[in-house]
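User: Bifunctional autolysin, Staphylococcus aureus:
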Amino acid sequence: MKNNYQNAFVHAFVDGDRIIETAPTDYLSWGVGAVGNPRFINVEIVHTHDYASFARSMNNYADYAATQLQYYGLKPDSAEYDGNGTVWTHYAVSKYLGGTDHADPHGYLRSHNYSYDQLYDLINEKYLIKMGKVAPWGTQSTTTPTTPSKPTTPSKPSTGKLTVAANNGVAQIKPTNSGLYTTVYDKTGKATNEVQKTFAVSKTATLGNQKFYLVQDYNSGNKFGWVKEGDVVYNTAKSPVNVNQSYSIKPGTKLYTVPWGTSKQVAGSVSGSGNQTFKASKQQQIDKSIYLYGSVNGKSGWVSKAYLVDTAKPTPTPTPKPSTPTTNNKLTVSSLNGVAQINAKNNGLFTTVYDKTGKPTKEVQKTFAVTKEASLGGNKFYLVKDYNSPTLIGWVKQGDVIYNNAKSPVNVMQTYTVKPGTKLYSVPWGTYKQEAGAVSGTGNQTFKATKQQQIDKSIYLFGTVNGKSGWVSKAYLAVPAAPKKAVAQPKTAVKAYTVTKPQTTQTVSKIAQVKPNNTGIRASVYEKTAKKRCEICRPYVLCNKRACSW
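Assistant: Predicted structure for Bifunctional autolysin:
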């Protein structure tokens, strides 16, 4: 590989210290010739010159090979002697497939008194451990040893069993997290600054009772690593589809580099005065919301469909035939506890669900509480109200809102840290029209939460920071580090006093003068005599506490 790095590339490099995957294994690489390239995951063993490094590199190589076999649902089967199997050397490709004439890695292995057969046995053993068919090294198995071809299942294989599946979702890493993991077998993760950004999720892995997501850059596919399920806000996503649609969009609306983007992924803002034309070319559904990618005034990016208005002429609604039965026009009403945002394009607000037409409203792209739902004929309605007051806004059709379930708010008493610039909102799941302010100061600030509410899968907290109050997503908050435990003082440092009367202390705000004739200064109200008489009479002393005994 050293002599051909400009003309070839492999999927991964392995040495005694690390496994570096340089190309997606779902796509071909160019390292074993034209015949073999489309078939195999190509791995380059980095040459080492001491026994310890070589042994570690063989262990890492076998582990990586076993992991790939498990992920793709394959079993170890050497092709070295018959040209059939799942584990191939470059020599086997040259001998049975052609397109190359290399014979590695046999020479390199022999130089370390090692053989391919030993390496294959190690791959097979790693695979059996990962599949829970034999006990891991260093543990005791209660099963009777058998040949590798027919391994005996240990009594509790599920505790360390790995399962991997493809995933097509998105996730945002929380500020407080366990870090990124190169493999799910790593005991600790590496610290990351890639927090509060939206990433694509390509795989899900479960190891024992721990679940992980493999996150990657949404646009480039560059992998960042594995992250624990509890360290992200995750949403399902459908595959993007091509569209060709024009919408109108208001100036100032933010465009993002990814769908469901955050403040760290802003691509720009819509310029101009008055509504502008947004030409959409791509669409993707994230959870229940639709996002569109397009261009406006020379800028491109993603935007929620809730901020767009379709400029196409609406299709005329056909007049119902007089013979249409009305037996389904039964009204049903039930209580509901949710929240909703009215789309920019809507049928208006209805005073009653019997109204034929709604009244135009400007209360769009704001979060409201939903208290009731009603069904009349084939139409479903939500009754929306101001979140913070009993003021009813009106009935709105189901198709005119983005709706989410909500649990009732609960009181909490918790302190968090929050970064400067983080937006506070007057309601949970608030929009840019409901901003209550932004966190000021430099460095992390203290946010004192007093209320918590779950909206769909997300948690929002209401609290105060630097004199400003509002709601913020829990994803933007971090639990402060626990203070160091106080060191116990030796018993000899504690003075014993006899309390003969109950004593109380209360806060006052008064000015006092120390008399020239005084009894001195006492460090504690428990001291019977003063340590030293006060010789200087200062005219004004601010007294903020008063101790009383009676």
